[in-house]
Amino acid sequence: MLGPNNKKKKREKLSKDSIQRAKKLFSYLKPYRGLFTIGWVFLVLSSSIGLLFPILMGQLLGVESEQSSSMQGALNMMNVNNVTTYAIALFIMFATQSFFSFFRVVIFTNVTENALRDIRKDAFKQLIYMPMDFFNKNKVGELTSRLSADIEKLQETMRTTVAEFFRQLVMIAGSVTFLLYISPKLALIMLATVPVMAIIAVFFGRFIKKLSKKAQDEAAASNGVIEESLMGISNVKSFTNELFMLGKYVKSVTNIRALNVKSGLWRGVFISFLIFCMSGAIVIVVWQGLLMTQGANPELSRGDFFTCMLLTIMMGMSFGSIPDMYSSIQKAIGATENLMNIIYSKNEKNLLTGTNKPIITGKISFSTVSFSYPQRKDIEVLKGINFNITKNQTIALVGPSGAGKSTIASLLFNYYPITGGTIQFDGVSITDIEIEHLRSHMAIVPQEVILFGGSIKENIVFGKLDATAEQIIEAAKQANAWEFISTFPDGLETEVGDRGIQLSGGQKQRIAIARAILRDPKILILDEATSALDSESEKLVQEALTKLMAGRTSFVIAHRLSTIRKADNIFVIDEGIIKEAGRHDDLITSNGIYANLVDLQGVSVTS
């Protein structure tokens, strides 16, 4: 996985099948292969035409040299004509190359953006359907980094780097070919340095890839620190731990700096070596080429000498630019691996294969249900839970923290697979029910409501996307939310801010209740929905919850026992076991756990 505790394992896996993962990128180019092929044709043409530059320029310079040593009028006129011809040919070459390059850039950008759009869509789709355990293992900041930083690396590489890398290879291959044709001796001198540099480039590329992947992992981790700090900024400030969080972030970015500096150091060593070798080879070629133009019967004409020199310089420049581009491609491969790891992981659509769509009325059965969280398989959270609930009952779950109350709520949503027993809805096993069908009949009002950025209306309508304006207002009224919504100048269009920060806790709870009312679920889960509210807000929220629970099966997880006195059944859970079960009036006379809790909280013993 992608979490920091699994980095070593992840890198080992990637090193084994990195190429196969990276190859999956081509599946995103396949729908645009026709346009992509045209782009490559333009790339080949523009690169090939570029090879004409040293040839035409070399001959142009050679003609000019010969002209200055000639005193014959006819020959002089012929040289002037040749100069003009070569100059015009160069202008035509530049115009043609510019034409092809324009279409190559436009097409490559178009194909790249189309492919990246599809990758972004598939990556987010995969994340949104991932099982809950995936988010227990991976930090949101790291996952966000995968969809931003990694795709940015792919964007630049696919749009320009790959094309430029190919163009430089064409330049090198074409230069060598023309050098061999014009002067095999000069070509062999230049080629003497190529095998050494090629071997070093291979080892260099592997080393840089490893450093780049480490830097990417650290960058994702640093984004995770930012995400955690900003999402929990109130906790950071209240505990005056700004320096602590800053220290964590500085440590992470320091590691990024160290890895990138190390990568830059080795790139610098390699590029310096490359420049020295290529510069030395150019000097030798120029020196030998000048010697070959001397004497009564020169081996090389002036025009060919200038052509060879320009070809050598162009080849040297191409070699010099390859390491950085190769490094960028290596980084892009690393980014591709990370993205493909997400896209090709198993999500709930693969893991939850139920297809039945039974009528859900709210009848629920737990039969000897046992459960351990995937990350803590050695700790059994639920131990043989049994209960049967008929529709429209209100069930209260009480007990100490960590007893398993919220875990039961999670299992109702089928967030995790149970390790033993069966859960049934209206007589159908939860594993056989189509997951979206099941969850469409359920709603939850959590203790800590996190609203989405946007308007109040957008947050309420999240419960039913096709709701009418009248339905939204009616839901807000039933949730006791319309009173405060109507006082805002923008009403339902009022922006709630990041995670609803501009609203109070009670206002956010009532919007969450309005959302649940709009959904009209058969099964309702209230997870400590009023525990964090003041008395006035609690009263308004409790009134809204009472309306919401009417006519549906409701599970109420509560610490405040005063809110559950009218429940049809109260399950007292401790250490993963239902220790007591019954109505409020029955339990308070048993002198058991529930009676002690009631006594501690000073709750009235009468309903």
What is this entry, summarized?
This protein is of the alpha/beta class.
Please give the CATH architecture of the domain at 4-350: Up-down Bundle
Output the radius of gyration.
Answer: 36 Å
CATH class category label of the domain at 4-350: Mainly Alpha
- Determine the number of helices (DSSP H or I, runs of at least 4 residues): 22
List unreliable stretches of 5+ residues. Answer: 1-15, 64-78
Give a quick account of the main beta sheet: strands, pairing sense, barrel closure.
6 strands, mixed
Shape: elongated
Mean pLDDT, to the nearest integer, reads: 79
Give me the CATH fold name of the domain at 4-350: ABC transporter transmembrane region fold
Estimate percent helicity.
Answer: 55-70%
What is the number of E strands?
10
Strand arrangement in the largest pleated sheet: 6-7-8-3-9-10
Explain the overall architecture.
The chain has helices spanning 7-23, 26-29, 33-50, 52-68, 73-128, 132-137, 140-182, 184-191, 194-231, 233-238, 242-293, 302-343, 348-351, 405-412, 435-439, 456-460, 469-478, 482-485, 505-519, 535-549, 584-587, 593-601; strands at residues 364-371, 382-389, 394-398, 420-425, 428-429, 442-445, 523-527, 553-557, 569-574, 577-582. The longest helix has 56 residues, at 73-128. By secondary structure, it is α/β, with parallel strands linked by helices. The radius of gyration is 36 Å and the shape is elongated. The chain contains 22 helices and ten strands. The protein starts with 6 loop residues before the first helix and ends in a 6-residue tail after the last helix. Among the domains are: 4-350, ABC transporter type 1, transmembrane domain (ABC transporter transmembrane region fold), CATH 1.20.1560; 449-520, Rossmann fold (3-Layer(aba) Sandwich). 64% of the residues lie in helices and 9% in strands. α4 (52-68) runs antiparallel to α5 (73-128), α4 packs antiparallel against α12 (302-343) and α7 (140-182) packs antiparallel against α9 (194-231). The strands form two sheets. It has a six-stranded mixed sheet with strand order 6-7-8-3-9-10. Strands 2-1-4-5 form a four-stranded antiparallel sheet, covered by helices on one side. Residues 1-15 and 64-78 have low confidence and may be disordered. β9 (569-574) and β10 form a beta hairpin.
